[in-house]
Design brief:
The chain is mostly helical. The protein has six helices and three strands, in the order βαααααβαβ. It starts with 19 loop residues before the first strand and ends in a 6-residue tail after the last strand.
């Protein structure tokens, strides 16, 4: 069991009450990158007839770029050294990748990291809010939550800020 007690590095007479825990999704709540997003990208590449394959080593290097559409564009301009896809084609490819990713989630291929569910439960029991802030798409977030925490699970989060809802 994860305990929130005694986590403060401050002296006992200077206790601050934790009010909210904000989670990222990819790599934080669940190990989604290697066996989720990377696999979904490769399935989308194949479906769209692109002779691209992101192995674990390459994908690890591509992760320094935040956001799937941005990652695709970076790959074509910095690795392939040419623009193969227009912005609209990148958007469509990313939508295809999201479809495959959601299917992986729905089939239970991407569980929560060990202890995440317990941390959320303990936070809520202690009147500590939980929220999500992530660059992944809203559908990816809700599908992960439904597959791992139940159909109404997004209601337990005070806020879910996901995807392109924040322009910059």
């Amino acid at each position: 069991m994860i305990s929130l007690v005694g986590l403060s590095p401050l002296p006992g007479d200077f206790i601050m009450k934790l009010k909210c825990i904000i989670f990222d999704v990819d790599g934080t709540m669940a190990d989604t990158e290697r066996n989720g997003h990377r696999v979904a990208f490769n399935l989308a590449f194949e479906e769209k007839g692109l002779n691209w394959n992101w192995d674990e080593e390459l994908y690890g290097r591509l992760l320094k770029i935040t956001g799937g559409k941005e990652r695709i564009n970076y790959y074509q301009t910095d690795f392939l050294k040419k623009q193969v896809l227009s912005d609209e084609q990148i958007k469509n490819l990313h939508a295809c990748k999201t479809k495959h990713y959601v299917e992986l989630l729905q089939y239970g291929k991407i569980p929560l990291r060990s202890g995440v569910k317990e941390l959320i439960e303990q936070a809520l029991q202690n009147n500590i809010k939980v929220a999500i802030s992530t660059t992944t798409t809203p559908v990816n977030v809700t599908t992960l939550l439904h597959a791992t925490l139940g159909d109404d699970s997004e209601k337990i989060f005070s806020e879910i800020a996901a995807g392109d809802i924040v322009p910059n």
